[in-house]
């Protein structure tokens, strides 16, 4: 009986360890000023539907938003429009000095 419980717990732990969360990238997704507002809303909806993704900030000065997004969502967002393609760029702290080669974004 004790062996069965130990085996069950080991199998459960292995299953949980294998279910690793996707790597999320900090990005800013923006569109040109003349892009339809529906396109921005569609991009936000795509991000909300991606597993693990979250919108961290919505901008009012530019048509865009910041988000943490898994790499697998990028093609869906890029495919929203050919006429008004989104700009997807890494989000992070920018400096004028080298900080030891810290990589920012995607």
TrEMBL record:
<keyword id="KW-0732">Signal</keyword>
<feature type="signal peptide">
    <location>
        <begin position="1"/>
        <end position="19"/>
    </location>
</feature>
<dbReference type="InterPro" id="IPR037045">
    <property type="entry name" value="S8pro/Inhibitor_I9_sf"/>
</dbReference>
<protein>
    <submittedName>
        <fullName>Uncharacterized protein</fullName>
    </submittedName>
</protein>
<dbReference type="InterPro" id="IPR052471">
    <property type="entry name" value="PBI_I9"/>
</dbReference>
<comment type="similarity">
    <text>Belongs to the protease inhibitor I9 family.</text>
</comment>
């Amino acid at each position: 009986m004790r062996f069965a419980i130990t085996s069950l717990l080991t199998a459960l732990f292995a299953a949980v360890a294998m279910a690793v969360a996707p790597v999320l990238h900090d990005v800013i997704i923006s569109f040109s000023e003349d892009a339809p507002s529906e396109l921005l809303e569609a991009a936000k909806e795509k991000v909300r539907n991606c597993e693990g993704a979250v919108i961290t900030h919505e901008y009012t000065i530019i048509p865009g938003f910041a988000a943490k997004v898994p790499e697998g969502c990028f093609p869906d967002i890029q495919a929203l429009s050919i006429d008004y393609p989104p700009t997807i760029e890494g989000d992070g702290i920018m400096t004028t000095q080298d900080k030891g080669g810290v990589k920012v974004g995607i």
